[in-house]
Amino acid sequence: MKTCPITKKGSQVGGGYSNRTRAQQFNPTGMVRKFPNLQKKRIYIPELKKSIRLTLSTEAIKTINKNGAYNTLKKAGLI
Questions:
Q1: If DSSP codes are grouped into helix, strand and coil, which group holds residue 28?
Q2: Residues in Cβ contact with 53 at an 8 Å cutoff, skipping those fewer than 6 apart
Q3: Radius of gyration of the chain (CA)
Q4: DSSP code of 5?
Q5: Residue 70, helix vs strand vs coil
Q6: Are 72 and 51 contacting, i.e. CB atoms less than 8 angstroms apart?
Q7: Is residue 5 within 8 Å of residue 12, measured between CB atoms?
Q8: Residue 79: is it exposed, middle or buried by C-beta count within 10 angstroms (0-12/13-18/19+)?
Q9: Global pTM?
Q10: Distance from the CA of 76 to the CA of which of 21, 24, 33, 66 falls in 20 to 30 A?
Q11: How far apart are CA 33 and CA 22, in angstroms?
Q12: For every one of its 79 residues, what pLDDT tens digit does the chain have, with 9 covering 90 and above?
């Protein structure tokens, strides 16, 4: 699983060249796939009295800490 279920963050292709001069000096374009910072977390939901294990982005972890696990997961459609 390479996407966050809450923020829907996935990988992006980045890189390339900032100007034409550098592009003429080197042959490959240097495109790089960039992945989000995903962490495996075990989250306890007091309203349901159970815990679930999710792979979340760090932004989603901050959102859960701010708004609460139940509200965030319900808004994302996970519970």
A1: coil
A2: 40, 41, 42, 43
A3: 18
A4: T
A5: helix
A6: no
A7: no
A8: middle
A9: 0.81
A10: 33
A11: 20
A12: 689 999 999 999 887 777 777 767 766 667 788 999 999 999 999 999 999 999 999 999 999 999 999 999 999 999 8
6 burial via Cβ count (<10 Å: 0-12, 13-18, 19+): buried
In this structure, the chain runs to a length of 79
DSSP code, position 15: E
Enter the tokens of residue 2: 């390479």
Q: CATH 2.30.170: does it fit domain 12-76?
A: yes
Tokens of 51: 């815990």
**Rounded to an integer, what distance in angstroms lies between the CA atom of residue 16 and that of residue 64?**
35
Angle between helices 58-67 and 69-76 (to 10 degrees): 120
Token pair of 55 as six digits: 């792979």
